[in-house]
Design brief:
Layout lengths: L11 H13 L8 E6 L4 E7 L8 H14 L9 E7 L2 E8 L10
Parallel strand pairs: 2-3
Antiparallel strand pairs: 1-2, 3-4
């Protein structure tokens, strides 16, 4: 388990690692995955565009969330990541996590 204690918990390297691992273990290419680091480098929001990919089940999306949960450091009392899945520009599913006090919520 990765637990961050420093000021900058989430950086570009961690976010890019999430993008690379999602692309490697799913039908989504890197070009359809974006990220935004928020909350003074304590939180990463990932967006996965699912347009053109017809065979992605809720279980597949949950696996992607679990993958991100294993990469992004955790913090106590706050979430450290969220993955939004979009279709035609609208969010249709989201997962979140990274809170040590509530490790299974959002997954």
């Amino acid at each position: 388990m990765i637990v961050a204690r420093g000021l900058q918990m989430v950086d570009n390297e961690i976010a890019q690692n999430c993008v690379s691992e999602i692309a490697k273990h799913s039908p989504f290419g890197k070009e359809g995955i974006s990220f935004e680091i928020q909350d003074d480098f304590q939180f990463v929001l990932l967006s996965v565009v699912t347009d053109g990919v017809s065979d992605v089940s809720p279980l597949d999306r949950k696996r992607i969330a679990a993958l991100v949960d294993g990469i992004v450091p955790k913090r106590s009392g706050e979430y450290s990541w969220m993955v939004n899945f979009t279709l035609n520009g609208k969010i249709f599913d989201s997962y979140f996590g990274g809170d040590l006090l509530s490790p299974d919520s959002g997954l």
